[in-house]
């Protein structure tokens, strides 16, 4: 048994186990404690006994048994005994309500309006997505210590306000949808480009986000932003087979072998975009999906309708302005009006803890022939890059530029 295997099982099982135990126990603190105890037991037993055939199921079962033992030891009232007996049933009776999937239910219950939206998103990423505090901090662009404090405060507010962990009623669902969509989107984003580690992609997170997205559309078929988010994820996921070379290297969009794109996912995503357009109620996820549809429509990189992409980013900036949207718009502007225009569009954009801004600046400066500034920008991007695949890509671009510069001076 290796630490990598334990980490993989943790990522796969943590969210599911916490969701199941929270439903059964009605208390998130007890659920987390039971799941953490189960992983301690795994570390003790698996080296000697071997990894079980279904390690994720083993964690859930062990966590449940630990919770039963704890309740029986601490029980002082009859209802404690009854709850322990309920936990011990092979198939505990389901709660009534609109949401039946444990992880989707956890998403909605964590997205309680008593919590600020950023706190809802961060807490649910931790509890459902199984993301580390560092990964969540990266997604929010804040220091890890800051995010750790936010998570502690969010759990404290849930405890102090006695916010119940229960199935929300159908009337509650629309008010909680924005936070749920934000969580699913961030889980997919982390899966699409991992903030750290050796691999570019985490397929498990992408698959889980898409699964939850499909359930949201089934649950709320009249919500256009749910349709838009699912379309966005499908159209992006369709390109995954071409994003990494046979040797594991990152392949940028303009250089991808488009014959490797998943045509079925593209067709499904484009159909969802058309459904959104017919509703005529545009939102941020729908516009992002439309941008990806433009990319997926192009048979070659040269066929991309970049002017349409710029128009869509302009619209997105009015709906959901952010530094990342402004950065992506600048990339599109550079394709339409040249790298100087793209560089000008970056003026005022700030992403202090992300490598994306200096990486884009480096590419635009390289295209303008401003080699010294480009090399400095590559160095700044590398200082902020946590993913090994992205780091290797940036190093290759930097080294190619540096070699060409030396050759030109020889």
UniProtKB/TrEMBL annotation:
Residues annotated as domain RNA polymerase sigma-70 region: 11-75
Keyword annotations from UniProtKB, A to Z: Sigma factor, Transcription, Transcription regulation
GO biological process: DNA-templated transcription initiation
InterPro entries for this protein: DUF6596, RNA_pol_sigma-70_dom, RNA_pol_sigma70_r2, RNA_pol_sigma70_r4_t2, RNA_pol_sigma_r2, RNA_pol_sigma_r3/r4-like, TPR-like_helical_dom_sf, WH-like_DNA-bd_sf
Pfam families attached to this UniProt entry: DUF6596, Sigma70_r2, Sigma70_r4_2
Residue span of region Disordered: 75-98
Domain DUF6596: 176-276
SUPFAM superfamilies documented for this protein: Sigma2 domain of RNA polymerase sigma factors (SSF88946), Sigma3 and sigma4 domains of RNA polymerase sigma factors (SSF88659)
GO MF terms, alphabetically ordered: DNA binding; sigma factor activity
Domain (RNA polymerase sigma factor 70 region 4 type): residue spans on this chain: 107-157
Domain of life: Bacteria
Protein family according to the UniProt entry: Belongs to the sigma-70 factor family. ECF subfamily.
Name used for this protein in its record: RNA polymerase, sigma subunit, ECF family
Organism taxonomic ancestry: Bacteria, Bacillati, Actinomycetota, Actinomycetes, Geodermatophilales
